[in-house]
Specification:
The chain is mainly alpha-helical. The protein has two domains: about 80 residues, no CATH class; about 100 residues, no CATH class. Helix content is about 60%, strand content about 5%. It contains eleven helices and four strands. The strands form two sheets. Strands 1-2 form a two-stranded antiparallel sheet. Strands 3-4 form a two-stranded antiparallel ribbon. The longest helix has about 40 residues. The protein is elongated, with a radius of gyration of 21 Å. This is Abi-like protein.
C-alpha cells in the first residue's frame, strides 16, 4: 500500500486521510474503495452510453439517411465541428468500407458530449450573409430522436437533455479521475437561489438509471439488478456522514 501512496500526490490523499483520522481505517483503504465505486459507476455508464448513442444514430439514419452527419441543413456549426474532429480522430477518410461501416465507426468515435449536445436546443450555421439557427427540437428531436427515447413524450426533449447533461458531468468527473464520493457538481446548472447544483453520488447514479429507462426500460431494470454501485456504497469503510453518498 505504501508504494501506491508514494506514487499519488499528497494533496490528493489528504482529504481521505482527514476523513479517516479518528478511525481505524487507513486513508488509502478509503481511496481504493472510492476507486472501486467509480469503476462500478463507469461500468454502468458504458452500457448506457453504447445503448443511447446506438438508438440515437439509428433514428437519425432512419430519418435522414446513413450520412445524416453531413447534413449541414439540420446541424449547427458546433455539432459539425465535433463530427469533423471525430472523423479525423478515427482516420475515417482512410477507411475503405461502405457507408454503413463508416457510419458505425463514426458513431463509436463521437464523444458522449456530442450526443448530449444534439439533445439540446441547437445553434447557428452559415456565413454572416446566410446565417440561420438550427432548431434541434424541430429538426432532430421531433422527426427522429424522440423515438430513441420511447419512454418519454414527444415534447419531453428538455427532460432527456437535463438527465443526459447530469450524466455527462458524472462521466467526465470519473474519466478525469476526480472525486465522486463527496458529490458530483453539475456543470452549468444552478438551483432557484443561484447555487451551483451538486448531486450526491446516489442521486447522480439514479439519474443514470433514469436516462437508461428513457432509452429502454429493460436496460434500466438490468442495471438496477446487476450494478455493484449500491452494494459498494453499503460497504463504505467509514461513517457515511463524512461523505456525500
Amino acid at each position: 500500500m505504501h508504494r501506491l501512496r508514494a506514487a499519488i500526490p499528497a494533496a490528493r490523499i489528504a482529504r481521505y486521510d482527514k476523513v479517516c483520522a479518528d478511525t481505524d481505517v487507513d486513508g488509502m483503504d478509503l481511496y481504493r474503495w472510492a476507486s472501486s465505486v467509480a469503476l462500478a459507476v463507469f461500468d454502468d455508464l458504458g452500457h448506457l452510453e453504447v445503448a443511447m448513442r446506438s438508438a440515437m444514430a439509428r433514428e437519425l439514419a432512419a430519418t435522414y439517411g446513413v450520412n445524416w452527419y453531413e447534413r449541414v441543413e439540420i446541424l449547427d456549426e458546433d455539432t459539425l465541428e465535433l463530427i469533423s474532429e471525430a472523423w479525423q480522430t478515427g482516420h475515417l477518410s482512410k477507411l475503405d468500407a461502405d457507408s454503413i461501416v463508416i457510419h458505425g465507426k463514426l458513431v463509436a468515435t463521437l464523444m458522449f458530449g456530442f450526443w448530449v449536445k444534439i439533445l439540446g436546443k441547437g445553434g447557428y450555421q452559415g456565413t454572416d450573409e446566410d446565417r440561420s439557427r438550427r432548431i434541434y427540437d424541430t429538426l432532430l428531436w421531433k422527426p427522429a430522436l424522440r423515438r430513441a427515447f420511447p419512454e418519454v413524450g414527444d415534447f419531453d426533449r428538455s427532460r432527456v437533455e437535463s438527465a443526459a447533461r447530469r450524466v455527462r458531468s458524472l462521466r467526465n468527473r470519473i474519466a478525469h479521475h476526480e472525486h465522486i464520493i463527496w458529490g458530483v457538481p453539475i456543470a452549468g446548472e444552478q438551483d432557484s437561489s443561484g447555487t451551483p447544483v451538486r448531486l450526491s453520488l446516489t442521486e447522480a447514479h439514479d439519474t443514470l438509471i433514469e436516462l437508461a429507462g428513457y432509452v429502454d426500460k429493460g436496460l434500466a431494470g438490468w442495471l438496477m439488478e446487476n450494478s455493484r454501485v449500491h452494494t459498494l456504497i453499503e460497504e463504505c469503510p467509514v461513517w457515511e456522514g463524512h461523505l456525500d453518498l
